[in-house]
UniProtKB/TrEMBL annotation, chains A, B:
Annotated source species: Streptomyces sanyensis
Keyword DNA-binding in annotation: yes
UniProt-listed PROSITE patterns: HTH_TETR_2
Residues of the HTH tetR-type domain: 17-77
Regions recorded as binding DNA: 40-59
InterPro entries per record: DesT_TetR_C, Homeodomain-like_sf, HTH-type_TetR-like_transc_reg, HTH_TetR
Alphabetical UniProt keywords: DNA-binding, Transcription, Transcription regulation
Protein name stated in the entry: TetR/AcrR family transcriptional regulator
DNA-binding listed as a keyword: yes
Length: 242, 242
């Protein structure tokens, strides 16, 4: 399938919005696999097959403005990954969201690393705010599947902490040459959430109620049953502590 | 107790090292509670009771050099917090490390937030490297208490992910007016580690062996026994899934 921009015959002038989208797509492709300091407006013009002055006409603020616009577009794409119908076992829903998220991370590896690592010349309070918006959207979606809209402090902190852990694990995953495979990482991240829900429920009533609701929607022999089976021997080693 | 610098009579000249330490201490005090962009060299000179040219003489690179030197000094202090003898139940050792860490976070709240949030004007690849060094030191200490020096990929990722979660929880904690109290947060972070060790051990033999060793060093009625007791009812809700 060709993109609308490249399918447009050369003799038709692109509309302002089409041109903007074309430049953004070219920029996003470059920022995905290179740190922002290694992408020039010349590169973007070349990738889009247009002149440098034209790039400047659309992004008068230069590379920083283009970077922030590309980041905003990537943030929207990422937030789109989080949308998941509230059907079926919640752990399977989280697994599907993580599949899409890890595919995004895989496709934007260098750019994702440069953005999240910090210390990039392109980082500003605005880029930080965009990334924080994505984190908030992710937290809201997870809470939705837990059946909670306004979480208390413990449950709210738990969800936000897990999201930070997912981010950190993604960066480590890229660093380590994407080993283990995305499926194994996804399963571990789901079980990480289940473990965290468990220990938080052990000390917080709101989380305990959310976990009870979640367990009612899970299936026999599903993800939680499998984890519980494998946890048996581990927990057995703690019998002398009770 | 007065600091060595302020106890020095005015007529004695400070040595180069003493003067440097005095300026760094003054800078660290200011950077702890204000974002770096709100601290000027004038402020540092005033806090140290010296002239601005003298601050420049010691830190010719200006505020950025002073900020990085203060950060390096804070990083050393923080790494000092992680040192904990390998005696007694490992979960109690982790709790003591977290006590010292949370006290540090409490004492450097605004500076810690500005540094970790990213997007600060003072952030460079050098400041990022200093913070990464602290994370590495923290991971090594945790692994030491787990009796592991060269962890495999799953255990290594688990420990680094938990450290990221502790960082994220600290930032949320500062944001939320340091509620819940530091003791409650510490206990939850220890249980977070235990939960994460449990689910990771359920899928990774190296982690399972580390957990088995850890459980042998815990005490009846200690942190893990208490958690297991409170987890009982939560886990009971999953009986239909096995």
């Amino acid at each position: 399938m060709t993109s609308p921009a490249s399918a447009t015959p050369a003799y038709r002038r692109l509309s302002v919005e089409e041109r903007r989208a074309q430049l953004l797509a070219a920029a996003l492709g470059l920022f995905a696999h290179r740190p922002p300091e290694e992408v020039s407006l010349d590169d973007v013009a070349e990738a889009a097959g247009v002149s440098r002055p034209l790039v400047y006409r659309y992004f008068a603020g230069g590379k920083q403005q283009l970077y922030e616009a590309a980041l905003r577009s990537a943030a929207e794409e990422l937030e789109g990954c989080f949308a998941e119908p509230a059907d079926g076992p919640p752990t399977d829903r989280v697994a599907r969201v993580l599949d899409r998220y890890l595919r995004f991370v895989d496709q934007h590896d260098t750019g994702f690393t440069a953005l999240m690592r910090g210390g990039s010349v392109a980082e500003t309070s605005r880029t930080t705010a965009i990334v924080d918006g994505v984190r908030r959207a992710a937290a809201e979606q997870i809470l939705r599947h837990l059946g909670v809209t306004r979480p208390g402090p413990r449950l709210g902190m738990m969800v936000r902490t897990w999201i930070a852990a997912v981010e950190a694990a993604s960066l480590i995953w890229i660093d380590e040459g994407k080993r283990p495979g995305a499926d194994e990482l996804r399963d571990w991240l789901v079980e990480h959430l289940v473990g965290l829900l468990g220990v938080t429920a052990a000390g917080d009533e709101e989380t305990a109620r959310a976990v009870a609701r979640l367990l009612q929607q899970e299936q026999r022999g599903g993800r939680i049953g499998s984890l519980a089976g494998r946890l048996g021997p581990v927990v057995g080693g703690a019998a002398h502590l009770l």
